[in-house]
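Title: Prediction job returns without error message
Component: structure pipeline
Severity: low
Priority: P3
Assignee: unassigned

Description:
Job completed but the reporter wants confirmation the result is attached to the right record. Sequence as submitted:
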Amino acid sequence: MNNIIKGEKYRFTVLTSSLIRLEYSDEGYFEDRKTQIVINRDFPEVNFRTVQKSDSIEIITDKLHLIYDEKPFSKYGLSIEVLDGVGSVWHYGSRWGNLKGTTKTLDDIDGECELGDGIISKSGYAVLDDSGSIIQTEDGWVEPGHRNHTDIYFFGYGFNYLEALNDYYILTGKTPMLPRYALGNWWSRYYPYTENEYKELMTQFEENCIPFSVSVIDMDWHLVDIPPEYGDGWTGYTWNKELFPDPKGFMKWLHDHGKKVTLNVHPALGCRPYEEAYDAMAEELGVKKGDTISFNIADRKFTEAYFKHLHHPHEENGVDFWWIDWQQGAGSRVEGLDGLWMLNNYHYKDSCRNGKRGLIFSRYSGPGSHRYSVGFSGDTIITWDSLDFQPYFTATASNIGYGWWSNDIGGHMFGVRSEDMMLRWYQFGVFSPIMRLHSMNNIFVSKEPWKFSMETEVLMKKFLRLRHRMVPYLYTMNYKAYQNNIPLLRSMYYYYPKDENAYIVKNQYYFGDSIIVMPITTPIIKDYRLSKVKGWLPEGKYIDIFNHRVYDGGRMMNFYRGRDAIPVFAKAGSVIPLLPETDIMNIDKNPESLILSVYGGANGSFVLYEDDNNSINYQKGECVKTKMNFDWNNGEFTISPAEGKTELIPQVRNYCINFNGIKNTPFKVYLNKEEIKVNSKWKNNNVTVEIEKLKAFDELKIIFENKLELAENNRVDEIRNILEQAEIEYDLKQKIYDMVCCKNDSGKVISQLCALDIDSVLVEIITEILTA
């Protein structure tokens, strides 16, 4: 290969102008097969040159300059300078400035924990170590990696973080698309439900119009009270018929009610003689009847029988995917074989058989784990500190390509009851990759909205419904994670790598292309019934999707919100597709009605992606794309004819188009260039246009007759609402209100407020509204 530079004991592979593989072995051993982490090294040819000197070799691309003394790798003998506007120099072994990746579990973590490295860094370089990792053989099995083989990948992308991520995915494999149902709400609880209790609970959710798409059945589905000679009951594969007398019927009932089913399994203790599948397993593996069949994922024959007898029969009866709750770390019976990775790898491959879109739910097993769908982050402690860590933890995982974390939303165990904390956790969960409520086996720890005050219950229901309403947007971002190699959650520095503000707001992130989220993770300020979060808006215009307040960007500020919202901003020009609330109970199909939220202030567009939602045909390009374009400058909004395999979507669709933050102006609507009459309504600087029975091949165009202008915020009414609920003196409320009403200049009002010598928090609250 033209991109390889090789010596007796070293080998360098120039994969891109910013990515170089560095190998060293005293034995002259080099690896070309797929590994646990890396599955593709076939990159396009790169222009570079080498300079051979008497005591060293140099490799120079347009982005990197490598100098090597041709001896065992050392910080003195191997260095790479990043030329791409960064000017930093890496010396072998250094790790400065890494922006971190993720960790295997949050079990027993209350607050922050140390994270592993990612492949992007403020220093402009990062290193991915693949030394000694598992080798994937051509026959589909594995073998331990070579112990005395240094194998690292140098990412020298400077501040081009998104480019680094893209090439990381090319190197380590794409993130597969999730089935559509995985993007809805998951109900999970470690609790010994009976079949009737569980059905009653799901029915109560339905009666309250609380949508869930996944039923997570924790370990009590199987026998847990077992004969003491077999140890504990954590591992099990036999249904507890006292709790679930008709497992197949139970799962059919859940399917009929729009729920997919996942069962929890702790596989570490193998298969014991009391299991229903034991005889078949023992016969296939040649185990003496009565002896426990030890778990041995490193043995191919065991692994084949493990799926054939312990999993496939349950899947035939209705299990859709498995929650693999492996808590034994990286060990296995063969040195160098990571048991968790082996489980993830083979469970995922098994889930893809017969053309089905694969899905597993398991812990992170190191770089490359993004190939195995949804991650279980472990048993979270119920505290504000845990909540405060989760946004940073979840977004930062994208730095190692891991985009589908599922956290225990609401926390799993310990802690104390706090309705405010639980509500803020719900709100963060809705704007997380996976929204999975979870709690421990304690009758007082559960997440049903009706177990909280009426105010909190109403808000919890609102946010659970919002999650399902966002599925059209989320599914398109699901496709982009696969096709464009860009995760759903993106730290602010992905787009603003040279602005220090982007690194300060660790808990803030882009949620897909169009939305910026600032989770609130601190208690409410009681005097004002508001909570605060420090956030940063880049240059531009932004509209809060909840209160529709328009903000000028280019600044760091404190944002205050009541219990009913967190700061979530749509960029000016954004087009965000949503489901109507009437269609949220079953999200596993392409919708017959859509709401389009369009945000004024700039040009923008959105290409809605749809497919069959459950197969792997998306890999062959079988899909439908519908472009929606907002031309702010010329006052036009267009829905173009759908393109692709249009039989996958409804041939007729209803649209409700909401234009947000726009001053009232007349408009006309054209269907295939013919003007039509539609229902429309202006209210509070928002216009709603209803389009019925738009065919897949139709073009719809809305043309505004006057130049579009952003609406002005209603500052007086907003401040009055703040003062109404503030627990301060009535006379002070009146004085502040009079100032706001009499002075048009925000700066003068703010200076007067400061002169009153009042609480600085109140000044900040009013200042946010006045200066938005």
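Comment from assignee: result matches the submitted record. The mean pLDDT is 95.
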